[in-house]
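In the previous chapter we treated chains in isolation. Here, by contrast, the input contains two separate entities that must be folded as one system, with a combined length of 649 residues.
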Amino acid sequence: MSADGLPWGFAYLDEGTKRMIRRALLKALAVPGLQVPFASREMPMPYGWGTGGVQVTASVLTPDDVLKVIDQGADDTTNAVSIRRFFARTAGVATTTRTAEATVIQTRHRIPETPLREGQILVFQVPIPEPLRFLEPRETETRRMHALAEYGLMHVKLYEDIARHGHIATTYAYPVLVEGRYVMDPSPIPKFDNPKLCSEAILLFGAGREARIHALPPHTRVESLAFEDHPFEPARAAGICALCGAADSYLDEVLTDDRGGRIFVCSDTDFCETRRAGGAS
Amino acid sequence: MYVAVKGGEAAIDAAHAWLAEERRGDPAVPAPTVAQLREGMALAVDRVMAEGSLYDPDLAALAILQARGDLVEAIFLLRAFRTTLPRLAASRPVDTGAMRADRRVSAIFKDVPGGQVLGPTFDYTHRLLDFALAAGVDPPPAPGAPADPAPLPRVAEALGAEGLLQPEPPGDATPPDLTREPLELPAPRALRLQVLARGDEGFLLGLAYSTQRGYGRTHAFVGELRTGAVSVEVEIPELGLAIELGEVVLTECETVNQFAGSRTEPPQFTRGYGLSFGRAERRALAMALVDRALRARELGEDLSGAPAGDEEFVLGHCDNVQATGFLEHIKLPHYVDFQAELELVRRLRREAEAARAAGESAGREAAE
């Protein structure tokens, strides 16, 4: 019986399904960067709206957890609100917007600015887990390429970017090499967040529609792909937050009028609010 | 000044309340009941059950009501509910040969044992709007005849006896279960059929049609199309016998396809197979054509360039709950990634501008 008294399990899924997902999670943690197939279920929110993350969160949540849900770094975006409510209702867990207070954080497109610590779990919503998908559409092919660590195609793509544009033209979902073995898609986080993939927390990636889970255990070596003469550079808008004055956070650009007026504000709302409460700015 | 996207919670609540009001429509008009939808929109209910992979006409009718008649949304509601249901047992394979068919036609023989039975079909109706329906006139009772309780023999068996039709050997192997295991490719036929059975009717229709127009032609004839009730039985190990749980209405289609033979197979007819919950001839026919197209690899045919014969393409894209979710998710905020793209495009433009300016000044110097 779920927390809301309706005939489904704690956090919606039945125990058998959660066990199946936990097995996939354990395998993914044991082989960092490997995409592990799992029997993804239909969830009561649409595919593409975080069903993979929701299934992973449902499988790791315990009644004592404190859950934070963000989308674009913010707790108050509509889909984050919807997912947070879903777990408040079906699992009855406490929720928070404070990164430091959360034990489980589900995210779409960002890693919080506040460094995560041991004991925390960050769950990513993943649309397309296959970093090679847009170079090779066939699953049977990409699976073989991963098995043989045949990543030449990816390096050629990055090289062609440099030849054409002078830069690697990938700005988000920037591919990484995990422990020198698997090339992994970190989900569509801006490449600004890539260095945070080396974390003290457990990072879990759930792709519901594609039925794949991958994971990074704490302290995993994660390198963003680059070349010796074109090293990886995380990018952000050159500006400071108009609300808290942060000069090192990832920024959203906000249009303020129809005459070209614009300001920059922190994408991470908790980071920004905490700084303002502390008198920064 | 900056107005944050605060107020998400209040906006969501208000949107849901508004949706409920819109769903109800004009309060002066009586609201349709689940029973009315189940009876009057029976074919919509059948489609929702088939693609929702759950046989329950009342729940399907409720889903249609809740979805305001959006069948893909209704299918999604039923699928999400299905997730919460425990798997108590697996039935014995249903015997469609023993179907109590109220419709059964074959297009390959003028007459077949058991006869051609038209049943309640749209096929020969003239598609003229019937204003008597709008006036609420009940139809006169249809002429009836006592049903023949004898099961209808399968048309395909007549061809099979002559050895002209590729046999489909029976097997006891437990088929893979799409709803309990992730789809792995390449997929065996049993798994492909499961995917097609819950695939989007429109997508299957388009694919099947494309094979008829030359994109992987498989020369299909309708060997047999039948609709009717079959009993569902479950084996109870403690009792050592099978118990009938109830009946489901199914539509089954078997196509007979020309096949000139290949390096591995002699010339013979081959089969495509379609099966659906409810009365769903379009979907069963389309499924059979696509099933046959997807057998190209095992039959050693070359259907390269035909989408319907491409297993990864068909199986990866025929589920409308997956497709609509991913398509519609682009409505969600993407401004973090868009910001990263903005910065890149601005930078590339700056650099292109600078390069052009440098080129122009170099050009002037050369000219001087």
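Chain A touches chain B through 70 residues (CB under 8 Å). Chain A has two domains: 15-135+158-224, 236-281. Compare these points with the single-chain example from earlier in the chapter.
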